[in-house]
């Protein structure tokens, strides 16, 4: 199987964009604040990358009968659960201590179901970034049966879902985009940014990208700087795009192109991204994504009232998040994932033995 270490390094850049979008920047110029606020595009990258990487790693094994549905889902739970539960635990303990955590909120979050509830007190509960894990779990549930669908039919499904999202976004812009029914976020925020059914489009785009890449279609190396320029241009103008479109379709072609141009390891940037340091940071990017908000809150409280305070908060939070993510990855996430996956593999191999 072809190693694509540059994509691992690129995961760190995506997590960094999300981090920068959550840091307050009151002293930054307006144009820079506008661009940094669009760092949520990193989540889109993770979703597209997930569709691509799972296709690369599992599609053939699934269609050949080497991987059962139960084993696949158990392995994916082993990937997400340790860090999800570990980063949720402090919030659960604080919520119990403050007596402001309800059982339904905690149970839905811990069982990866929070994104299905159109209420921000649910889908942004406990460690808020974990809402995307709820989406990922839905993608995993869909992935196994999608592997048995012929590529042209998956592309048709992707096109139909794109048209559905576009039609709903057009309707939302004029009717309910800014309406708040429950929680603190608009209906449009849940429908177009959180709702797993619509975010499945990015996962399908990643699967389609793998189909195209597997068929040998490559882009010229000159497309790499163009893809980065398009990303920054899109981030610069994004605040002029209605929320429903910005949260759903606007960044999708840019993110897909950005992923595609990094599939060739030859360009200098790809060689940097596939270096040992960037690969390590990329491997720890899941931990960085999951702990960056607590790191920002801690530094925001500890740092006093200083000139350009936001720069000190950002620098301190970044350093804290990087160190903590590396420690979590090396000493907890990776050992826990390996242990759980080894247990799953032992269990499934024992279950197959009598039939053999």
UniProtKB/TrEMBL annotation:
InterPro entries: Acyl_transf_3_dom, Acyltransferase_3. The lineage of its organism: Bacteria, Pseudomonadati, Pseudomonadota, Alphaproteobacteria, Rhodobacterales. One of its GO terms (molecular function) is acyltransferase activity, transferring groups other than amino-acyl groups. The chain crosses the membrane at residues 7-25, 37-59, 80-97, 131-149, 156-178, 190-210, 222-238, 244-261, 273-291, 311-332. One of its GO terms (cellular component) is membrane. Residues 6-328 form the Acyltransferase domain. Keywords: Acyltransferase, Membrane, Transferase, Transmembrane, Transmembrane helix. This is Acyltransferase. One of its GO terms (biological process) is lipopolysaccharide biosynthetic process.
């Amino acid at each position: 199987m072809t190693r694509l270490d540059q994509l691992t390094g690129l995961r760190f850049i995506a997590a960094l964009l999300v981090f920068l979008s959550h840091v307050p920047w009151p002293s930054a110029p307006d144009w820079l604040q506008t661009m940094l606020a669009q760092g949520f595009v990193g989540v889109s990258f993770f979703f597209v990358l997930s569709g691509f990487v799972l296709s690369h790693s599992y599609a053939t094994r699934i269609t050949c009968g080497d991987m059962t549905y139960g084993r696949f889902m158990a392995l994916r739970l082993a990937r997400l659960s340790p860090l999800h539960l570990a980063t949720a635990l402090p919030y659960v303990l604080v919520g119990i201590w403050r007596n402001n955590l309800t059982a339904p909120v905690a149970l839905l979050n811990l069982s990866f179901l929070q994104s299905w509830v159109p209420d921000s007190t649910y889908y942004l509960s406990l460690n808020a970034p974990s809402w995307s894990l709820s989406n990922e779990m839905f993608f995993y549930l869909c992935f196994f049966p999608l592997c048995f669908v012929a590529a042209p039919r998956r592309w048709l499904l992707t096109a139909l879902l794109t048209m559905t999202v576009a039609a709903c976004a057009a309707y939302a812009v004029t009717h309910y985009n800014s309406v708040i029914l429950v929680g603190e976020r608009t209906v449009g925020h849940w429908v177009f940014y959180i709702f797993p059914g619509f975010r499945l489009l990015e996962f399908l785009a990643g699967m389609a990208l793998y189909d195209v890449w597997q068929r040998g279609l490559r882009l010229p190396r000159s497309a790499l700087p163009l893809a980065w320029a398009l990303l920054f241009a899109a981030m610069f103008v994004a605040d002029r795009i209605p929320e429903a479109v910005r949260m759903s379709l606007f960044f999708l072609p840019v993110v897909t192109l950005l992923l595609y141009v990094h599939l060739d390891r030859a360009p200098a940037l790809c060689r940097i991204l596939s270096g040992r340091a960037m690969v390590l940071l990329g491997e720890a990017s899941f931990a960085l994504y999951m702990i960056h908000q607590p790191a920002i809150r801690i530094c925001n409280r500890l740092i006093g009232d200083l000139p350009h305070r936001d720069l000190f908060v950002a620098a301190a939070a970044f350093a804290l998040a990087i160190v903590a993510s590396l420690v979590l990855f090396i000493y907890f996430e990776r050992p826990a994932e390996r242990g759980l996956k080894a247990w799953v593999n032992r269990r499934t191999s024992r279950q197959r033995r009598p039939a053999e």
